[in-house]
Specification:
11 strands
Length: about 130
């Protein structure tokens, strides 16, 4: 079993930056992709960003492109989400996700991922 633990959330003002971290542990971690999703109150969980741990290719939601950057650490068992130019509409619980070694057919769909973290709250005030 793989465990994902997010950290780095908090309360910031609009225009500020935050960096979220997601650490994977457990059995041999062989996921192709790690992704970030978010869920605001009363809304469905939505895709934010994903990264191919093996090739490094990245994918972003249009709403965060140019502001957020996803990356992995040197051991590729940790994923980061650097969030710059935060807006009130970025307020949500952010979740880290990973597949079980079978690459997602579409990294933007939550059901393609097998492991999830517990989430970290990001609140952006005006």
């Amino acid at each position: 079993q793989v465990q994902l633990v997010e950290s780095g959330g908090g309360l910031v003002q609009a225009g500020d930056s935050l960096r979220l971290s997601c650490a994977a542990s457990g059995r041999t971690f062989s996921s192709y992709f790690m992704g970030w999703f978010r869920q605001a109150p009363g809304k469905e969980r939505e895709f934010v960003a994903a990264i191919n741990r093996r090739g490094g290719s990245t994918f972003y939601a249009d709403s965060v492109k140019g502001r957020f950057t996803i990356s992995t650490g040197s051991a590729k068992n940790t994923a980061y989400l650097q969030m710059n130019g935060l807006k009130e509409e970025d307020t949500a619980v952010y979740y880290c996700a990973a597949d079980d070694g079978g690459p997602p057919r579409n990294v933007r769909y939550a059901w393609e991922y097998d492991y999830w973290g517990q989430g970290t709250q990001v609140t952006v005030s005006s």
